[in-house]
């Protein structure tokens, strides 16, 4: 099921990109006078149009039919190869035209284009192979019983131009907020310098939101001398957590790479002061790791507090000093209020009783999870068509059990294809990665995921609209401390990885290195302090790699094996390359610079 929804995510928009390439002057010049002109190239577009017509059906059937799933994957792989070849042709034609720019007669240019020498002969064979492969896949659609099927587009209306969804719109948590604040203001249990209060609940139930409400309350500001917030996430790194706490308290970055030195500095900051720390999204179940982290905390003033949010009772049991606070699901009434806030714009649910009835049925299927209610409310935002609401309420995707939250799967399923591609690209980001809107839009532009415009400025504006659309549907939310930064909820990150399939890969961690699939086209590398050769040993398998994106996730300096340059030099199809923030990468080798005609962007 790893790629069970990947078809609609890419293929419809990818085929449109392919159509644009096929109509380009560069390709027409290249095939003019060849047998390809009268053969496959001319008949390929109507064949691919027939494939595009059955993609909705394929997207539905691949969920339960492994043969359809394999067909979708092979078709996407072939489309990638065709795009790459068309790009190579366009690049070569452009190079020759630039060399021939002093020649006035266009016929002379065309003569040069039609005599590419070795490039010409090799490309003929490659192009014929990939076009025949596409033709074969087109014929298979009938064998698989794929039919033309129109799912309907009314649910895809762009929301009215508004600001991002108001994250302060929280429903049904007043009692919980007051209960946590009461715990924070109590005298600590006997003998405890610091009390640890775990908030435990399932993913998407609103643990982080509740912690944010408490953290930002004025009463809490008055009660504590120091506050700090750390997103811990799946990898429990005492050094990173300590450093982040210190930076939040002092507003200064530490250059130290020694945990003991950092903890001594943190101890100095905490002496005699009552503090509140929020450790958000903790997964670690090793008591020894918690003991290593907590050693400076005992030097703060009595009645200091630490709030931990986690899905795991085991995590809570090793950290808590007071009873766990379980966070339950929302009532149907509160869940409806949250859903309605996001679904109805400039109107009231009471004015649409037919929608209210269907909406309440949808909300019941959200199982009391705020994340699910927000996602589906955002999906139906500005849409007052009861038929579309019924389609979502009755969709059989609710019944699939594969670890993906059904409401999020549905919210993705009903996205327009261009937004599906842009969202799936975010699977390159590790969990809890903080990104800026401008950063992501530039990456989308570099990958040709946006519609083409006359200027870079127009394309960038389109990218910002795409970003706003995804944020309004709760796929992104603003980071707590910095409103220019965004993150994806863990469950949304899981969805992105799920739908991206085998064409997107992340290299992360320093122990369990993954084996990169030969179909991989987009790869991110989450930097460690030392990225060794073993981490990249299967990189040569990804011969069609388009993206190598290096992402900074740890404080301090990072270094990478010099062998990475040798591997990247062989990647002639690279479009996006970033080696940012590696201390030992001071310049790009000339062999990689020679690829710049293909690269759309080059990282710092």
UniProtKB/TrEMBL annotation:
NB-ARC domain location: 175-345
One Pfam family this sequence matches: WHD_DRP
Keyword vocabulary terms for this entry: ATP-binding, Nucleotide-binding, Plant defense, Repeat
Signal sequence segment: none
GO molecular function, one term: ATP binding
Domain spans labelled Disease resistance protein winged helix: 428-496
GO biological process: defense response
Record has Repeat as a keyword: yes
Domain Disease resistance N-terminal: 10-102
InterPro entries: Apaf_helical, NB-ARC, P-loop_NTPase, Rx_N, WH-like_DNA-bd_sf, WHD_DRP
Presence of the UniProt keyword Nucleotide-binding in the record: yes
PANTHER family: DISEASE RESISTANCE RPP13-LIKE PROTEIN 1, PLANT BROAD-SPECTRUM MILDEW RESISTANCE PROTEIN RPW8
Protein name: Gibberellin-regulated family protein
